[in-house]
Amino acid sequence: MGALSGRVALVTGASRGIGAAMASALAGHGAEVFAVSRSPGNPAVDAAHSFGSGARIRPVRLDVTDPKALTRLAGSIRDQHGRLDILVGNAGVLHERRRTELFSPEEWHEVIAVNLTANWYLIREMHPLLAASDAGRALFVTSGLSWRGQPKAGPYAASKAGLNALVEAYAAENEGSSLRVNLFSPGPTKTKLYADAFPDADLAGVPTPDEVAEKMVEACMPWTTYNGKVYEFRDARWTALQPPKPV
Questions:
Q1: Which of 4, 19, 31, 156 has its CA 20 to 30 A from that of 108?
Q2: Choice among 156, 170, 194, 231 that is catalytic
């Protein structure tokens, strides 16, 4: 029996990279996982492998920017289980890095829609199910780019900064309840998104999605007490989002 046996989880962006690794890791710990993606990908997700103890991955093909699709998914989870124990908001897009004024309006709107607005849709639809759990856990993937001011990633940085504020507010609204809401900053990881964004980066020693996912699973365990915090994988620490420093 895994530590998450009988738990119900939902992971977005689960066709590859961190999302696919997270879906597999949660299932490996005993959870039943709804693995959401808008495109085919990792065979471990698409084949819905069994991990024993009743744990399994259930692929769900939908676009997280489609609120009606998320409403239907929430209804399906409610009908089948009556609750959701773990929500992982991982889906994200970055686009080729360039100066802020050189992004197209279409690219801007897509980044904001996937990285920020879709997570609000998730909160809106899944909160009643998380609240029905005896130990609901919501974890959203952020990025150090949201606070480091690195050039040529303006839309992505803005979307993740918005996500940080959204998640902090949501966590504060649930302080004192059994729900825990946090952020996870993986840092450089051997994913297609990172390789496409930083084609010249040296990937020697960069962690794999599986390594990142194992630490993310810890933040989803019923005994996790942190709320409204961010785990920085690169520094191996929980911290609060820092306010601006005086000049």
A1: 19
A2: 156
Any catalytic annotation for residue 231? no
Q: Say if residues 64 and 38 touch (Cβ distance below 8 Å).
A: yes
pTM: 0.93
DSSP 80-147: HHS--SEEEE------S---GGGS-HHHHHHHHIIIIIHHHHHHHHHHHHHHTSTT-EEEEE--THHH
The pLDDT tens digits for 110-159 are 999 999 999 999 999 999 999 999 999 999 999 988 988 889 999 999 99
CB 25 within 8 A of CB 216: yes
Residue pair 13/40 in contact (Cβ under 8 Å)? The answer is no
b vs e for 118-149, b when ≥16 Cβ sit within 10 Å of the residue's Cβ? bbebbbebbbebbeebebbbbbbbbbbbbbee
Q: What is the DSSP letter of 50?
A: B
